[in-house]
C-alpha cells in the first residue's frame, strides 16, 4: 500500500497493491492495522455504493455533527473526486483538492472529517464505493454549493451537470457551516 499526500492535510491517495495475471486481479482494499500504521482510521462503520451516469455530480456533502471521514473508490468507470476543507483551524481552510479515480488505477481517496466531498462522473456510468467513519445522519447533513464562485472548483464539465434538487440548492461557501475545531475521528466537534 502506498500513500500520497495532497495539499489538504489529511486528504491522501491510497494505492493498494494489485496482483494481476491472466485470470484478472486481486487486491486488498482495506486492512485496519495497515491503515492505522499509515495514520489513517482503522474503524469504518458504514459502507455505501452508488451507480451514476455520465455528467452526474453528487455533492458537495458533509455533516455538521458526527463528521464523516470517507474512503472512496471507483469500482467501475471514472470520476473526478473533490474534497473541500471546511476546518477553520486548518492551513488549507476553504481550499479544494481534486483527483481522478478510475477502475484501472484502483486508487482510493481518503477525505477526513471536516471536509465536504463530491464527485462528477466522467465515464458512461460509474460504480462508486465508499467507507465512512460515522453513520449517515440526515439531520446533520449539509450541502456546499458545487459551483460556488469563491471556491472556483475546476469541474471538467462540457455542459450542465445532472444534479439532485438537494445538490442544486447547496449553500454558498460564505454562508455554509464550517468547523471551528477540526473534528476528531472518535468525538463530536464543537460548532461555530
Secondary-structure map with pairings?
Elements: E1 2-5, E2 12-15, E3 18-21, E4 24-27, H1 32-37, E5 46-53, E6 57-63, E7 70-76, E8 78-85, E9 96-102, E10 108-111, E11 115-121, E12 125-132, E13 141-143, H2 165-168
Antiparallel strand pairs: 1-2, 2-10, 3-4, 5-12, 6-11, 6-13, 7-10, 7-12, 8-9, 8-11
Task: Describe what is shown at a glance.
The protein is mainly beta and 192 residues long.
List keywords for this structure.
single chain, 192 residues, mainly beta, Jelly Rolls, 6-stranded antiparallel beta sheet, 5-stranded antiparallel beta sheet, 13 strands, disordered C terminus
What does this structure look like?
It is a single chain. With 192 residues, this protein is mainly beta. It has a single domain, classed as Jelly Rolls (Sandwich). The protein has two helices and 13 strands, in the order E-E-E-E-H-E-E-E-E-E-E-E-E-E-H. It has helices at 32-37, 165-168; strands at 2-5, 12-15, 18-21, 24-27, 46-53, 57-63, 70-76, 78-85, 96-102, 108-111, 115-121, 125-132, 141-143. It has a six-stranded antiparallel beta sheet with strand order 1-2-10-7-12-5, with no helix packed on it. The longest helix is centred in the first third of the chain and has 6 residues, at 32-37. It is globular, with a radius of gyration of 16 Å.
Amino acid at each position: 500500500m502506498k500513500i500520497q499526500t495532497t495539499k489538504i492535510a489529511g486528504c491522501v491517495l491510497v494505492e493498494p497493491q494489485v496482483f494481476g495475471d491472466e485470470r484478472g486481479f486481486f487486491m486488498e482494499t482495506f486492512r485496519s492495522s495497515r491503515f492505522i500504521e499509515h495514520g489513517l482510521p482503522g474503524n469504518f462503520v458504514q459502507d455505501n455504493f452508488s451507480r451514476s451516469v455520465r455528467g452526474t455530480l453528487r455533492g458537495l456533502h458533509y455533516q455538521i455533527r458526527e463528521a464523516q471521514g470517507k474512503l472512496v473508490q471507483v469500482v467501475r468507470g471514472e470520476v473526478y473526486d473533490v474534497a473541500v476543507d471546511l476546518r477553520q483551524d486548518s492551513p488549507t481552510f476553504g481550499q479544494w483538492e481534486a483527483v481522478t479515480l478510475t477502475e484501472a488505477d484502483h486508487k482510493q481517496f481518503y477525505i477526513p472529517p471536516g471536509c465536504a466531498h463530491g464527485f462528477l462522473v466522467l465515464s458512461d456510468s460509474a460504480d462508486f464505493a465508499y467507507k465512512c467513519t460515522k453513520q449517515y445522519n440526515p439531520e446533520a447533513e449539509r450541502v456546499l454549493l458545487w459551483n460556488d464562485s469563491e471556491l472556483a472548483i475546476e469541474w471538467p464539465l462540457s455542459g450542465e451537470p445532472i444534479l439532485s434538487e438537494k445538490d442544486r440548492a447547496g449553500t454558498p461557501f460564505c454562508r455554509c457551516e464550517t468547523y471551528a475545531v477540526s473534528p476528531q475521528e472518535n468525538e463530536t466537534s464543537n460548532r461555530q
